[in-house]
């Protein structure tokens, strides 16, 4: 049944103000045909072929967002799609008129309903992730019980099942029993000694749905039977013995009853489908729209496209500018070979709304015009565009084009009258919210009159503040662009060494006249070249020479810029490589020292044990302990020094020039891979905030993210910050031998690292001593945001010389 589909934003795709002829001129129909190639079934293919640009901002943005959601879903699940949905529109119409559907057709209905159910369940579960696609899925309607009814009645191979109805099951049981009795009787007749001599061959066969025996022709009448057929040679007759006629009749009657019951089941299911035809048609539309979003996503991936930003026209209050924004980065024509097409950058200054492109024939002027127009149409149709991310396009109410077909991809011809007829239509419809594209303005007639006409038409469009892109050969329009506010020159470049166009677009400079240079390169006699130069206005020659010099200087600056960028990248890569090497050296140093420390710890523990044994032995012998106590004090001091944890030394590779980190800068903490904002600074360290988490780190572990001070961020709850996979600092921290200030600073850093590493608890070794350090540590732990509770160590953990802190598990 006919339907009118709507987009994710509720927009009627079948209504559009844009002229179909203009869309054809810009080859949008070819883009739609490519899009249709990514659709999974005919309904969505039809929708792709009738896709139109949207002329309202919010629906167009919603269409782009739906495509982005589909791309995100396909990236996570490349097999996502509409499953086994079929175009059941003709079946729905037939069922609505009372037609009985076949088992295979009902299977198509079942497959489509199964696809609809899967899509509905998928997007209901992921509504928060894919809201636009979920809105489309909500239009899916699943008639209660229809899917199950078809499943009970029709097998996956298209057979009507015994379970389709009780009567059908009974009939089929009777058919099987009767069939078995019939075959048993026929087998008995084969073995009958009165019939066997008359058999041409000993087998059972069928004719017209009845079981018969092959008898010899000369035995006709000798076996009581009904003849149903004769062999081609006439030597064999196929006869039904009278003994099985009744069983054959019974079997045949049961088969007919079985078929009648099957038709009744199919008719009943078809009736259910017909009753729900309108709802099922709407479901089919929703499935097709979802499939179209998947097709847009696949097409975007094939083009290596990106989502553009659509902006409204924002006319300036104090200036005549129409408010156009057009910024295309490395834009490519979607119909050209991506391996050979040369990307163009189109970036209009905020005061510019008219671009005049000049340059050699076949230099890329027409392709540039079509690229701009086509990408605007694609963006407004919800299609991502073949350009780099960051492209911005204003929303146009209409895109009007007149492109000389002699330069079109189709290579057909047009006439001056047709050219002017199109321009008349364009002028009638043009406004500040339309995009006008004209190729070879004023061409096809006398050059002097053509140039005058081109300038007058262009002046009219500029006065009306119409966003306009024009390609021309007329030098008069170059001067007009230079002298008129809002208008800017552009050119496609030509390589005089290879005598080939480069297809690169340069905005701000008009195209150069290369005729004399090309003729010289090709070997035209010098006296002819000199004579030609004498007929040209010297001012024009000086202007061309100046343009040549500007282009050369621009190319030289571009070469130097690329070289500088390459040098910077190489320096950054070298810096990163050196930093990795230094980190590896520091890791190795720490490993060696840690091994030595552990060995020293073992030896000092052995020494302490030996001293304890000596003290007990001297006590039993009632000998003075002064010598042992002196050794014990030395051993205690040695153990304290050995237990002091190793500190990682600062390693910093020679860096490329960058400014120093300042308060408010956004930085990356390399060891954790997280961004934060600098909250406090000292000579060697910085305090950074990651959400509500405060961390003190050394400056060498920070990379500057942005040279501009970061805006103060609102506090982000810790429960929505993904905790990084930080390395564990170990479950024990020894503070023995440190002052209170040193210990508290080390404790604060340690707790941050332990919390980020996800440790459930830690042991703080502060020793017993006077108890001053122990009390300071426990006060700090009591008010620390990462600590849930703290308690003294158990008898086997070090008693009062240790505090166990249980960390929060947010």
Structural class: alpha/beta
Quaternary organization = single chain
**Range of strand content:** 15-25%
Sequence stretches where pLDDT stays below 50 over 5 or more residues:
1-15, 406-414, 707-725
Please count the helical segments: 21
Distance between the terminal alpha carbons, to the nearest Å?
56 Å
Sketch the major β-sheet. Answer: 6 strands, mixed
Write the layout of secondary structure elements.
Blueprint: H1 20-25, H2 28-36, H3 42-49, H4 57-76, H5 89-96, H6 103-125, H7 131-137, H8 146-153, H9 166-191, E1 205-207, E2 210-216, E3 225-230, E4 236-241, H10 245-275, H11 277-303, E5 309-311, E6 326-331, E7 344-347, E8 354-358, H12 365-380, E9 392-394, E10 398-402, H13 416-429, E11 434-439, H14 447-463, E12 468-471, H15 475-483, E13 487-495, E14 500-507, H16 515-522, H17 526-534, H18 538-620, H19 626-643, E15 666-669, E16 674-681, E17 685-690, E18 693-698, E19 702-704, E20 732-734, H20 740-757, E21 761-765, H21 772-782, E22 787-792, E23 802-807
Parallel strand pairs: 5-9, 8-12, 8-13, 10-11, 11-12, 20-21
Antiparallel strand pairs: 1-2, 2-4, 3-4, 6-7, 6-9, 13-14, 15-16, 15-19, 16-17, 17-18, 21-23, 22-23
Helix pairs in contact: 2-3, 3-11, 4-11, 5-10, 5-11, 6-7, 6-8, 6-11, 8-10, 9-10, 14-15, 18-19, 20-21
């Amino acid at each position: 049944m006919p339907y009118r589909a709507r987009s994710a934003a509720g927009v009627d795709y079948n209504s559009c103000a844009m002229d179909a002829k203009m869309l054809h001129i810009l080859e949008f129909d070819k883009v739609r045909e490519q899009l249709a190639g990514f659709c999974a079934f005919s309904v969505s293919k039809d929708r792709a072929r009738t896709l139109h640009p949207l002329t309202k901002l919010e629906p167009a943005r919603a269409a782009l967002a739906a495509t982005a959601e589909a791309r995100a879903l396909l990236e996570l699940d490349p097999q996502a799609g509409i499953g086994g949905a079929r175009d059941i529109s003709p079946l729905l119409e037939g069922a609505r008129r009372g037609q009985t559907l076949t088992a295979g057709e009902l299977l198509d209905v079942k497959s489509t309903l199964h696809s609809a159910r899967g899509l509905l369940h998928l997007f209901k579960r992921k509504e928060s992730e894919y809201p636009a696609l979920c809105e489309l899925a909500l239009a899916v309607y699943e008639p209660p019980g229809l899917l199950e009814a078809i499943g009970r009645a029709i097998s996956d191979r298209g057979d009507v099942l015994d379970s389709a109805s009780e009567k059908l099951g009974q009939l089929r049981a009777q058919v099987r029993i009767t069939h078995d009795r019939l075959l048993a009787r026929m087998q008995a007749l084969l073995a009958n000694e009165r019939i066997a001599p008359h058999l041409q061959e000993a087998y059972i066969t069928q004719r017209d749905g009845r079981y018969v025996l092959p008898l010899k022709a000369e035995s006709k009448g000798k076996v009581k039977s009904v003849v149903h057929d004769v062999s081609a040679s006439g030597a064999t007759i196929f006869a039904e013995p009278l003994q099985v006629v009744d069983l054959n009749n019974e079997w045949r009657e049961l088969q007919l009853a079985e078929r009648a019951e099957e038709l009744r089941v199919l008719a009943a299911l078809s009736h259910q489908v017909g009753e729900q035809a309108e709802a099922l048609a709407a479901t089919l539309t929703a499935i097709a729209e979802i499939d179209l979003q998947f097709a847009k996503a696949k097409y975007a991936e094939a083009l290596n496209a990106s989502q553009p930003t659509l902006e409204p026209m924002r006319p300036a209050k104090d200036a005549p500018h129409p408010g156009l924004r057009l910024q295309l980065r490395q834009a490519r024509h979607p119909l050209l070979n991506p391996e050979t097409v040369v990307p163009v950058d189109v970036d209009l200054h905020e005061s510019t709304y008219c671009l005049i492109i000049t340059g050699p024939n076949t230099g890329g002027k027409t392709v540039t015009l079509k690229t701009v127009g086509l990408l605007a149409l694609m963006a407004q149709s919800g299609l991502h565009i073949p350009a780099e991310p960051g492209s911005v396009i204003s929303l146009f109410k209409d895109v009007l084009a007149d492109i000389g077909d002699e330069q079109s991809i189709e290579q057909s011809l047009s006439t001056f009258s047709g050219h002017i007829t199109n321009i008349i239509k364009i002028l009638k419809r043009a406004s500040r919210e339309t995009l006008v594209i004209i190729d070879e303005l004023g061409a096809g007639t006398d050059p002097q009159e053509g140039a005058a006409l081109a300038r007058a038409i262009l002046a009219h469009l500029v006065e009306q503040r119409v966003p306009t892109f024009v390609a021309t050969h007329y030098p008069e329009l170059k001067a007009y662009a230079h002298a008129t506010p809002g208008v800017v020159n552009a050119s496609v470049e030509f390589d005089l060494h290879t005598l080939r166009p480069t297809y690169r677009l340069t905005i701000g400079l008009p195209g150069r006249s290369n005729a004399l240079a090309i003729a010289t390169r090709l070997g035209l006699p010098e006296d002819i070249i000199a004579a030609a130069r004498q007929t040209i206005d010297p001012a024009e020659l000086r202007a061309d020479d100046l343009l040549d010099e500007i282009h050369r200087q621009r190319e030289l600056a571009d070469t130097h810029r690329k070289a500088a960028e390459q040098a910077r990248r190489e320096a950054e890569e070298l810096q990163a490589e050196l930093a990795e090497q230094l980190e590896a050296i520091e890791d190795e140093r720490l490993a060696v020292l840690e091994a030595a420390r552990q060995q020293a710890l073992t030896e000092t523990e052995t020494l302490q044990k030996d001293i304890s044994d000596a003290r007990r032995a001297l006590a039993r012998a009632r000998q003075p302990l002064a010598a042992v106590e002196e050794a014990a004090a030395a051993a205690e001091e040695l153990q304290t020094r050995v237990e002091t944890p190793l500190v990682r030394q600062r390693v910093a590779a020679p860096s490329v020039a960058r400014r120093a980190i300042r308060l408010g800068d956004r930085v990356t903490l390399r060891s954790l891979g997280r961004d934060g904002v600098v909250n406090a600074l000292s000579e060697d360290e910085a305090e950074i905030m990651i959400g509500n988490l405060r961390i003190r780190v050394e400056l060498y572990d920070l990379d500057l993210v942005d040279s501009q001070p970061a805006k103060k961020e609102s506090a982000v709850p810790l429960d929505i910050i993904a905790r990084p996979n930080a390395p564990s600092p170990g479950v024990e921290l020894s503070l023995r031998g440190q002052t209170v200030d040193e210990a508290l600073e080390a404790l604060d850093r340690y707790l941050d690292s332990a919390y980020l590493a996800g440790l459930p608890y830690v042991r703080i070794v502060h020793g017993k001593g006077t108890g001053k350090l122990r009390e300071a540590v426990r006060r700090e732990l009591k008010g620390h945001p990462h600590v849930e509770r703290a308690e003294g160590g158990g008898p086997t953990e070090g008693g009062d010389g240790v505090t166990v802190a249980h960390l929060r598990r947010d």
